[in-house]
From TrEMBL:
The gene is lpxH. The lineage of its organism: Bacteria, Pseudomonadati, Pseudomonadota, Gammaproteobacteria, Oceanospirillales. CDD domains: MPP_YbbF-LpxH. This is UDP-2,3-diacylglucosamine hydrolase. Keywords: Cell inner membrane, Cell membrane, Hydrolase, Lipid A biosynthesis, Lipid biosynthesis, Lipid metabolism, Manganese, Membrane, Metal-binding. It holds the Pfam family Metallophos. Signal peptide: none annotated. Hydrolyzes the pyrophosphate bond of UDP-2,3-diacylglucosamine to yield 2,3-diacylglucosamine 1-phosphate (lipid X) and UMP by catalyzing the attack of water at the alpha-P atom. Involved in the biosynthesis of lipid A, a phosphorylated glycolipid that anchors the lipopolysaccharide to the outer membrane of the cell. It is an enzyme of class 3 (hydrolase).
């Protein structure tokens, strides 16, 4: 079964073009044989709880539900912006929630899937917040707030994140090579696929392959693994993709698993 991989769409009301592009993607996938779409985190710019149902999100959830009803599967990995996505959202959309690290077996391949922020261990300040924010106690305290307070809190977190990122060395915010090596070798993975860093590239490490998914901003980025284990990542300008769909995509990265 073919698989599609996306991450870091950062969907919210200020980017209706990206919402439209995602809906176009689901419509395009529905034209193809049954497949699985993997959303590897930061699908939303900020998610403040499943009880928050703004008007702009209805089209997104409807598109996900329609895709699944048409015979495709959708799996979701939490990112650092949408870790409050819970079972209520899953039940509304039909999307399956994955663990932080997921192994996908496809023919003879073993693919390790993640959002990617867990590998940025040199950013000690962020990792401390991440550890706190992933606890049940912290999440319950946030979800107990009134929605308007949660909206303000999420905005403050985004502002604080931008401010702190501006003061950090760019290398600190990238993945740690040792953390990547440990993840790939411990799982005996053919490749690690992740997002988070917004640095799309296919890496050929001595210990294995790694595909970094692109973030959706000026461009739409989509990776696809076909039935023959051919893995590619393609992109297109958002406005062109909205008009032309998959025909607008240009391959940027291609992975051969079986070359000598």
């Amino acid at each position: 079964m073919p698989c599609f991989f996306i991450s870091d769409l950062h969907l919210y009301d200020k980017r209706p073009d990206l919402i439209r592009a995602f809906i176009v993607l689901t419509d395009e996938i529905k034209k193809s044989p049954p497949s699985t779409l993997y959303i590897l985190g930061d699908f939303y710019e900020a998610w403040i709880g499943d009880d928050y149902q703004p008007e702009w999100n209805k089209a997104i959830e409807n598109a996900l539900h329609s895709l699944i009803q048409s015979g495709h599967k959708v799996n979701f990995t939490h990112g650092n912006r949408d870790f409050l996505v819970k079972q209520m959202w899953s039940q509304r959309t039909g999307v399956h929630l994955l663990d932080e690290l997921t192994l996908l077996e496809h023919n003879d391949l073993c693919l390790l899937l993640a959002h990617g922020d867990e590998f940025c261990i040199d950013d000690v300040e962020y990792q401390a917040f991440r550890s706190t924010a992933r606890t049940e106690k912290w999440q319950e305290s946030i979800l107990a707030m009134p929605i308007e307070q949660r909206i303000a809190f999420a905005q403050k977190l985004r502002n604080d994140s931008k401010s702190m990122s501006a003061d950090k060395d760019i290398s600190i915010m990238d993945v740690n090579p040792s953390a990547i090596e440990t993840a790939i070798t411990d799982q005996n993975a053919s490749i690690l696929i992740h997002g988070h860093t917004h640095r799309p590239k296919l890496h050929q490490h001595p210990f294995g392959k790694r595909l970094v998914l692109g973030d959706w901003d000026e461009f739409v980025w989509i990776a696809k693994l076909d039935d023959n284990d051919s893995l590619t990542q393609s992109c297109a300008k958002v406005d062109v993709f909205c008009n032309e769909g998959m025909n607008a995509l240009t391959v940027q990265h291609s992975c051969d698993f079986y070359s000598a």
